[in-house]
Amino acid sequence: MFELQLLKAAMRFVLNALFAHRVLYAGLAICHASGCLVTEKPELYGPMAVLYGILSLRR
Q1: How many CA atoms lie within 13 A of 44 on its CB side?
Q2: Amino acid 59: pLDDT
Q3: Distance CA 24, CA 30 (A)
Q4: What pTM, to 2 d.p., does this model score?
Q5: Rounded to the nearest 5°, which phi and psi values hold at 40?
Q6: Burial 9-37 (b: 16+ CB within 10 A, else e)
Q7: How many CB atoms lie within 10 A of CB 49?
Q8: How many angstroms separate the CA atoms of 13 and 22, rounded?
């Protein structure tokens, strides 16, 4: 019984960490995409926006 509770707690910790990283990467993607629009330099901010977008969607 103790092992099951320990496993559940460990799984919750891992899932929370993964979700937090997804939110972080999504925020970075939005920031870089807005940088493309504001500065009108997509060659500077575009690749990182795409990279962070992919990282936020990755499982």
Answers
A1: 9
A2: 62
A3: 10
A4: 0.68
A5: 55, 40
A6: eeeeeeeeeeeeeeeebeebbeebbebbe
A7: 19
A8: 14
DSSP 35: H
pLDDT of residue 54: 95
Residue of higher predicted confidence among 59 and 40 = 40
Among 30, 34, 19, residue whose Cα is nearest residue 53: 30
Task: Phi first, then psi: give them for residue 58, nearest 5 degrees.
Answer: -70, 145
Q: Radius of gyration (Cα) for the chain, nearest Å? A: 17
Dump pLDDT digits (tens) for 3-58: 889 999 999 998 888 778 888 999 999 999 999 999 998 999 999 999 999 999 98
Please tell me the distance from the alpha carbon of residue 19 to that of residue 22, in angstroms, as a whole number. 5
